[in-house]
Amino acid sequence: MAPITLDHITKRYPDGSLAVNDFNLQIQDGEFVILVGPSGCGKSTTLNMIAGLEDITSGELLIGGAVVNNKSPKDRDIAMVFQSYALYPHMTVRENMGFALKLAKVPKDVINQKVEEAARILDLTQHLDRKPANLSGGQRQRVAMGRAIVRDPAAFLMDEPLSNLDAKLRVQMRTQVSRIQRRLGTTTVYVTHDQVEALTLGDRVAVMRSGLLQQVGTPGELYHRPFNLFVAGFIGSPAMNFLPGSLEGGALRTALGDFPLTDELRREVEGANAGRDVIVGIRPENFEDAALVPAETRARGITFKTAIDVLESIGSDVFVYFTRGRDTRVSSAELDELAADSGSTDTGADAETVTARLDAATRVREGTDAELWADGAAIHVFDPATGRNLSLAAKAGDPVPPAPQQEGSAS
Amino acid sequence: MAALTGKQQTGWTAANFVVIVLALIPVAWLVSLSFKAPSAVTDPSFWPAQWTWGNYSGILTSAQFLRPLVNSIGIGLISTFISVVLASMAAYAVARLSFPGKSVLIGLALLIAMFPLIALVTPMFTIERSLGLFNTWFGLIIPYVAFGLPLGIYTLSAFFREIPWELEKAAKMDGASPFQAFTLVIAPLAAPGMVTTAILVFLACWNDFLLAISFTSTISSRTAPAAMEYFSGGSVFTTPTGPISAAAVVITIPIIIFVLFFQRRIVAGLTSGAVKG
Predict the structure, then answer these.
(1) CA-based diameter of chain A, in Å?
(2) Residue B91 and which of A96, A392, B46, B59 are 20 to 30 A apart at CA?
């Protein structure tokens, strides 16, 4: 158990491409930190550098206070769980789990005892003498976890350990990973491209894009106070809606209507010198069926009429989709990248569609016009040129809202 | 592959049958000759009228055959062992690492394999004479290893490429040195490839005639195929057809056993279960 410090870590490949650029992160002893981002953002490279499987071009990596840049993986006292599990196919589960201890010349009875204890935690006791080929995907995943646990290392590194499991098993294993980490209290760095996994597992989440760290924070911070367009669009499922807006007088004009601007927000936006055109972000749950909004909160936002294209009821909530009018596409490199990553450019999903999450009690019907309400206090305003969130200061005074409900919206 | 129609199936069966018969007739003939008495060799019947063990007892009690048989086994096994060990290391490097001169190395290995052996015999003979390797075991082992390596490197690098790279990373994370990762994780998984390579190299050594006859002069290092050349008949006027046939049958048996024994390992897909679910 040890803290891990990444101090100005940079990875440049021999061909000159920059995989990780000036990465700074302090991971506390026992903390569970998630590295998340779309594929190719450098998160796995960062993990491999912590593991010692890739060289660090510049910067310092400290594990337990000691610089380990030039130490080989075996001298770093860390265990890793691979996406493919990488179990040794010619060894039984017991041998797989005890391999590291055997190499460390730990006495046989101690190995046996540790392996059996790990097997008990992971519910693998009856499979100890089987070969990986005879195990199911979930069992293999647990063996891979067990191989890390028996070592009792300074830190666990996990590289998308759940992405090969089917959706249901993934949710179960997610809970188990979390429970094991709490129980052992071992510092853990976990890489994933799945933002739901990131938000549910992590004490803190680090969002990466193109080798650059975008934001580090608790899941709640990332969700409610994203630093920029990328984090705002990446975190949250369904994703935040983005619409073009312009500042006119004291109001923020959008295709949905004019949002009243608080003085704080106006000052911030004007101070940023961002020009009059901005991008407005609204999360799906910041919409509501206008009929269900109490009069006293109604004034905080705007109401508008729209035709509901599609309605999906998942019992606890109702998702509605509507278009917000022509020529309202926002363009930004960050949003384009997010769209490419989520596959919406391949599926032809319409970027002009707005998603709203309504209370299950709504009477809105598919194909009809409905009156919806959008919460003006919850909107985010972004500078289209830099992607920076201009409304952060305005939200500084807000109490940190409760963590979002993610389970139901797992995609 | 689409299922064969009845007509196609009959056609293929017939074709296979023809090929097998064509391949086996000479073998059957050889076996038949080995059981004929010297006087019956010219006998027109395919199978001997009188079966005799005479040829076998003759060669198996003669140092002219037994000593070369021992040489064949010894030289073959040592050459195979050295080839497989060196080839697996080289193949691993070729499959896993990128280093300057890698393509040159592969090209050179191919070049050795493509060179006509007969063109090399004379220079190698001179070299072996001057190095004092002529008519020794190592005089044969060194060229056998040299010609076995290209084959071994090719076969094994294909096997190494199939082994998931992450297994080695996992071994490193588990605290293995590069050598331990290779011997404890990678090599066991490449075992089918190593066995395949070993069989191919051993066969090449075992069956070699050209080098064996060129680089040896006495039975102290002559191998079995070369020794058969020196068999003599009952008199100057009789050819030793029977003993040669018997010797040919005897040296074929180890090969059959070798292949049958390792066949299962060759085809076994050992890497299943390494990754994913």
Answers:
(1) 77
(2) A96
Domains identified in chain B, total number: 1
For B251-271, write each residue's pLDDT tens digit. Answer: 888 888 877 877 666 555 444
| Of A238-252, A278-292, A335-349, minimum mean pLDDT range | A335-349
pLDDT tens digit sequence for B21-34: 999 999 999 999 89
Four-residue CA torsion sign, A297, A299, A305, A310: negative
SS3 content of chain A, % helix, strand, coil (to 5): 35, 30, 35
Residue A405: the pLDDT is 38
Q: Which domain holds residue B63?
A: 29-36+52-276
| Interface contact B273-A103, CB threshold 8 A | no
Note whether residue B43 is domain-resident. no
Residue B1 lies in a domain: no
Please name the residues in contact with B43: beta carbons below 8 A apart, sequence gap of 6 or more.
Answer: B36, B49
Mean pLDDT score, B66-84: 94
Tell me the nearest-neighbour CA distance from A49 into chain B, angstroms.
12
Tell me whether the omega of the peptide bond preceding residue A132 falls within 30 degrees of 0, making it cis. Answer: no
Domain membership of residue B106 (yes or no) is: yes
For A73-123, the pLDDT digits (tens) are 888 889 999 988 899 988 999 999 999 999 999 999 999 999 999 999 888
Q: What is the pTM of this model?
A: 0.77
Can you tell me the distance from the alpha carbon of A316 to that of A310, in angstroms, rounded to the nearest whole number?
A: 17
Report chain B residues whose CB lies below 8 A from the CB of A99: 171, 174, 184
CATH number at residue B270: 1.10.3720.10
Residues of chain B neighbouring A140 (CB-CB closer than 8 A): 273, 277
pLDDT, residue A94, reads: 94
Q: Two tokens at B166? A: 């992450």
Report the C-alpha gap between A293 and B133 in whole angstroms: 99
Q: Which residues of A touch B180 (CB under 8 A)?
A: 103
Chain B CB contacts of A83 below 8 Å: 166
Among B174, B177, B272, pick the best mutation site for testing chain A contact (most A Cβ within 10 A).
Answer: B174
Tell me, yes or no, whether B22 lies in a domain: no
Interchain CB distance below 8 Å, B172 and A72 = yes
